[in-house]
Amino acid sequence: MKQLPSLTHMLTRLIAQPSVSSVSPEFDMGNRALIDELAGWCEAAGFAVEITPIEGHPDKANLVATLGRGPGGLVLAGHTDTVPCDPGLWRQDPFKLTERDGRFYGLGTSDMKCFLALALEAARGLAAEQFHQPLVILATADEESSMAGAKAIRAAGRPLGRHAIIGEPTGMRPVRMHKGILMEAVRITGRSGHSSDPRLGNNALEGMHKAIAEILAWRHELQQRYSNPLFKVATPTLNLGHIHGGDNPNRICGHCELHIDLRPLPGMDLDELRDALETRLARTLADTGLGLEVFRLFDGTPAMETPADAPIVRAAEMLTGHPAGAVAFGTEGPYLRDLDMDVVVLGPGDIEQAHQPDEYLALDRIPPTLDMLRSLITSFCLKPTR
Length: 386
What we know:
Layout: H1 7-16, H2 32-44, E1 48-54, E2 57-67, E3 74-79, E4 98-100, E5 103-105, H3 113-122, E6 135-140, H4 148-156, E7 163-166, E8 175-178, E9 182-189, H5 204-225, E10 237-245, E11 255-263, H6 270-284, E12 291-296, E13 304-305, H7 311-320, E14 325-327, H8 333-337, E15 342-345, E16 360-362, H9 366-382
Parallel strand pairs: 3-6, 3-7, 7-15, 8-14
Antiparallel strand pairs: 1-2, 2-6, 4-5, 5-16, 8-13, 9-11, 9-12, 10-11
């Protein structure tokens, strides 16, 4: 029987295998080689392994590895992909695990390949017959782009466990809620013409001026209506991030497009927000003769909230010594919540390291992470169900 390799070997191999996901095809790549190697390690540790390809992406897959049987159980989840990087901005090879100054450097060390190896290391030496409830290691594809992996897990509808830890970089502070993400485009079409006579056209840029005023008024209403003091920014945010219109000063602008980013709080429904945006803009531009299109730039990620009294929340707070908080970035948590799991986002990396050159994981975070994971496995898998 194969033996589970050392933790350092696993970390080295995970960082060495590029698995970038991106909405830009020129940067996007598969994760299957990484998934296959991770699956082999899980089998060596005694897990039952299932690899599920992502529809339409033959080079991408999820991994579900299960040790033990029974109701409920604990899921330790992480995504296998990273964002793109520019190696020229790094002081070392981003695809080579480099130890320096008490840190492991490499793309994915903090966000968040290393967590998967730590989850396996925490289960080292455990046998299936010791378990009263199962331990599941879940490794997904495309979290950094389409969320295709998490969506496929949700669509399968199969319960994986009752409690889940997602090892995103939180600095070892538990997170039980996060904002959602919407990125929407507003496209206004007018009629171009010579700028010397406004009657010759219909100015899309002037229409966008009205649209932006309406969007800002809507933002103010949302911020008056919704607030949660657990978030550093307590209200939903709406950013005007990109705009382009027209082609020359002496032509009436015939088209204009705006891209916005909206971060809703838990309890705010994505589809309702989209409907409200389109309805308000349609009303604003109704008498202008301008064409209006509102469309999503990606599917969006819902906000997530896990009850403060959930057992996994209380356990995470006790083990870390920190109250469970809230963050503005999105995770795969909402998709696991849809499968009736209580989810805590909790990992050894730091969000300040994510998506940055010279990304690293501090070595002194590894022992407490392993201790925490072993305690969670004992509490939620090895002890008899109460």
